[in-house]
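Service request form, structural biology core

Requester: graduate student, group of Dr. S.
Request type: structure prediction, single chain
Budget code: on file
Notes: please return the result as structure tokens.

Sequence provided:
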Amino acid sequence: MSANGSRTLLACSTAWALGASLTPGTMAAGEIREGMMAGYLLVPNERVAETYNGGFSMYVAAWPLLEEYPGSRFQTGLFGTWMHAQNEGPKPIEKMYSDIEGGLGWWRDTRFATVTPKFIMGGVALNFVAWANGPGAGKGRDWDQPRGKYGVAQLSPWVLWPPDGLNLKQGTCGQLLGYGYLPLPLTAPKSVTAGKDVPTGNQCWTLFLNTANFKGPVAFFTPYFFSRASADDPRLAGMFLDSRPAGPNRALQMETQYVPGVQAVDDRGETYARIAPVSFPRGPQGHSTVVHRVTAYTRAALWDAVEAWFQGGAPAAGTIDLSAAVVHRFPGRGGATWRIYEPSTPKEQRAPLAWDSFAVPFAPDPETFAYRWNRDLVRNRDTAQGSLVTLPEYYHLRTDDQGRATWIPVQAGDVPAETGLTEVRFRRPAAPAPEPYVTPDAPESCWRKPGPVAGPFQAYPGDGSVVTYSWYRFADQPALLNADLTDSERERLQERVEKLHRHWHRDRDYLPPPEVGALAEIDPALIVTPPAGLEAGYVPIVTRQAAKE
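Core staff response, request fulfilled:
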């Protein structure tokens, strides 16, 4: 028992404050066991022609999914997608997974977490041998084995990208984050990769954002991040996103890997469960808009104008050409695979919850996906940041005539007292101060040679961290010194980016704007201004992120 007489769930600990047994087997009445909820929310959208293979953009709602951050086991994305290379014909090897995914959410390796989601880029190299979440952020923390931490180059001179993820403004509650990836011809195609006679393409897949306080390109995946695998296996040459177009018909889902919960049985042996309170944003009409304007592009949307500019033509405005775009329409239906179970439960025995009993997917208009709610089973909650709909917390495991088990939502008053579930509290567990993210500081490292031209400076985002950054000449940033580029290739890239910095500013639209809702904001602490004389051709690079003392 805690000091206030309620039972407390330590969500990220294997030892429960309740003292309940975690041994598999039949539960005794009043024995509370660890549970969890996981699965996908599915968002069908209509297919478009395969010729729209030049990238995508969309608007997704950002909101606090849980009332309190439950610890480092918590992992869930908000609504997002997976963009794979468009390949026809047989694959040269059986397993060849590589894509750009990421999006808004919380991850087990998030160190400075709050209930406000962060954004990661989520590029995946061949079969997860490496991944790149942003500038200086990738698989693992060992700089001797970077595995994707050099896979993303900073492009914007106005946005800081912490290694823990791009922060949204604290308190974001239902506003829309506009983002997408389009390729830019920043580099030139190469016939040799890492000294091997295999090619690397020149598609620099670039993250574009549309927010209330920043608009435009932020960072891009270096082509070498994708093509590096082909240097080890030449059969894979030309198969990845450095050179291949992107499949336009992508899955659109919300992937949840862990939400904490508990289970118990009553005196009759009936099983009940409780999950941590899960909420969705509530709009003025009472429903929850979660995805809007999913758009696919051809290369003519941006690539052609930029390529002509770099070859000596007129400056490209950077605004997406909507004549080269198509919007995926929503048919107004959807599904869910959310299940509640004990962690040791075999996959085939994990019972689904009756999602359809309280959630109805629909399309308020052909370009928007939303949920209506059963008012008898959900509760409305108004906060200082915005309005939310909180889903049922309690469930009763029922079995139908065919032996299929389903978790049916019930009210708190219908849960037998002997289960103890109504006394459980899901609170943020005590944890030591998170370890800082650090970068190499040896004099001969790529972080110090040639090194920054200004700094270090510090920023203080709302997640409680201190972000230390310096200004680097664009072509001398560590990611590009590890991108398999010669000095002359980096200088050509420098010239092109200086043009972008002089002509593409952060206060006008690049992506097509939304037709509904309000735009989310990036944490204002991460919006910076280049020092005098460094306005074009220089970028801020984060070198450390640590807990605020």
